[in-house]
Amino acid sequence: MGTKQATAPRERIPEPLTEQTGPSGGTLAALGCAVVVLAGTGLFGWSDAEVVHAWRTLLVSIVVQGVPFLVLGTVVSAAIGAFVPPGLFARVLPKNPALAVPVAGVAGVVLPGCECASVPVAGSLMRRGVTPAAALAFLLSAPAVNPVVLVSTAIAFPGQPGMVAARLAASLITAITMGWLWVRFGKEEWLRLPKRPDAHDTGGSRWAEFRRGMQHDFLHAGGFLVVGAMAAATFNVLVPPGLLALFTDSPWLSVPLLALLAVLLSVCSEADAFVAASLTGFSPTARLAFMVVGPMVDLKLIALQSGAFGRAFTVRFAGTTFVVAVLVSVLIGAVLL
After folding, report:
1. Is 198 helix (H, G, I), strand (E, B) or coil?
2. How many CB atoms lie within 10 A of CB 298?
3. Quick one: where's region Disordered (predicted)?
């Protein structure tokens, strides 16, 4: 009778870091909601000042404008986490990340929401096995090429189908280019993606997981939405309109100026075409840059991305996206406008 050979215990492989440091989304959500409620009801003792009234109005309008689409995004994200089998999206998309990127970019057409909705959905796609490059291409394209945005652009620029085509082309090219850049240069360690246990992993009720996932994502993203809205409202009330007029006569300055303005104003993608149409002193290419950059890089989106994926990712990704979006807008504007 042989002796039982002792086996060494298996080495436990540490899980990748998935939680980011800094204030939690729930904490920011609670503080942000308090600010919005106090601002909306005018309970600040100094709220009679005209500048504070304007700031309060802008803050509440940005948050109210973004929350419905944030809810849409969290519903989709929670549904993906609770009901979609693990690996489904990875099996549907091409195995080659370079091919998966344009497919995911074109798939952005199906989500009629703004940038607030795309961040939690992109995070959920990554958790379900989708390559980050494809998920990021979807994140950038969904707010810019969906039917609601294209129809609003056509209404804002009547009789100018070239502007609609230019926005569609420039937004898709930017999203796909950023996905390909991530394939070539991106590093997984830059992403700090919060991991949620889901019903597939724990064996729990999928509806219970759906509720937990929606609560988690909404609280996590909602606080950062408020932070971004506060920054955008502050810019709106502090920068005098006359300062912008100094740049309208220079084609070299007007494009980057309106691109930067899109970042700071943080207008929802469903409404930004009407703002762009009102900027009649600027060239068509500059207004195109405003509509291409805004849904991909604005203050509330930067805050949402920072909360969802980490600051290290957001600094690199948002900065590169801004540059690519401006360059592509100039090229497409020269061809189509």
Report:
1. coil
2. 27
3. 1-24
The whole-number pLDDT of residue 193 equals: 72
112 found inside a domain:
yes
> Which amino acid is residue 277, in one-letter code?
A
For residue 78, give the nearest of 212, 223, 220 by alpha carbon: 212
Task: Tell me the whole-structure pTM to 2 decimals.
Answer: 0.73
Residue 318: both structure tokens together = 């948002």
Block residue for tokens 């090429």: 145
Residue 20 lies in a domain: no
The answer to whether residue 210 is domain-embedded is yes
Task: State the Cα–Cα distance between residues 80 and 86, nearest whole angstrom.
Answer: 9
Quote the pLDDT of residue 12. 37
- On whether the CB atoms of residues 293 and 332 are closer than 8 A, the answer is no
**4 belongs to a structural domain:** no
In angstroms, the CA 111 to CA 117 distance is: 9
Model pLDDT, residue 304:
87
What does the CA dihedral 74, 79, 82, 88 come to, rounded to 10 degrees?
-120
Q: Which amino acid is at 183?
A: V
Question: Which residues form the domain of 223?
Answer: 25-191+199-336
CA–CA separation, 233 and 218 (whole Å): 22
Give me the average pLDDT of each 10-residue run along the chain (337 residues). 44 39 50 54 56 81 74 75 71 88 88 71 84 93 86 90 96 97 91 61 70 76 72 76 71 88 83 82 92 92 89 94 97 95
The tally of domains found in the chain comes to: 1
Rounded to a whole number of angstroms, the distance between the first and last alpha carbons of the chain is 87
Structural contact between residues 262 and 187, judged by C-beta atoms closer than 8 angstroms? no
pLDDT for 19:
40
pLDDT at residue number 250: 74
Residue with tokens 């795309």: 118
What tokens does 244 get? 């912008």
